[in-house]
Design brief:
297 residues; alpha+beta; Beta-Lactamase; 2 domains; 47% helix; five-stranded antiparallel sheet; four-stranded antiparallel sheet; Alpha-Beta Plaits
Length: 297
Amino acid sequence: MAHPAVQKFNSVAGLALDVAQRSIGCARQALDDLKTVHRIARIGNWRIAAEDRRATWSPDMHELFGTDPASFVPHEDTLTSQMDEADRATFLATFATIFETGEPAAVEVRLDGCGEGARRWFWIDMRPETSPTGAVIAVRGFCQEITDRKLALERIRFMTSHDPLTSLINRGHLLERLDQVLAEARRRRENVALLTFDIDDFKGINDLFGHSAADGVLREVAARISRQVRETDLVARIGGDEFVVVETGCEEPEIVEALARRLLRAIAEPIALADGREIAISASVGIALHPFDGMTC
């Protein structure tokens, strides 16, 4: 029989080994859980060394960008070569600052043609890796795809700023943009024209042809107005059958009047309804020219 002291030592050693094995098991489980979270959240991580700018990617990074870790060797400009030009400049400046200051930073970037082909959005969180002396020897980054979130936000912004029937900007967004347009016009000493259009007897159209047909008329009028103006002009539906056009750089009132006549002719062209019938409409127009008709339109 072993000495009591030996038995006690073996018991303590066995307990310590069991605790260590359990700790290792928990650590492995935590690591597996973290990898699962990264995969679900579409997060990859990378490291770029300060000395030779050698890049190291995690398997999740390769999965994000559709590359084969066995054959694809990432390098410093693998990400930046696919970035939007303005975002690339921001990323490189931020990256260089981390090496200089040792302070963490994060950027949001757009990448084109990476893996899945379409434009994608990423949030990149970068942190310095330092030596015992405090020198920055590498930058480690976490790269999370946020494309779905960005697209959802863009859809929300569009819905809050645009008319759902015609996809033109709505009254609220028009007022916001108009403030900007007028401020810019004052700075450049340019004229701004505001034209308002109302469809004549629109209630009668709605009563005679039905709500669906009336909606179709509004959509067609919106499309016709949009085709007649420049991309830089504003076209809005501000409610009911009211439309607004804001045109900048109008040197002469005659030019604005010519635009109004052209738009009225376009609106008056017969409109084909979904059931095959045609309807002829007309509209009334009002014109205000800034700064001759006041400081606001």
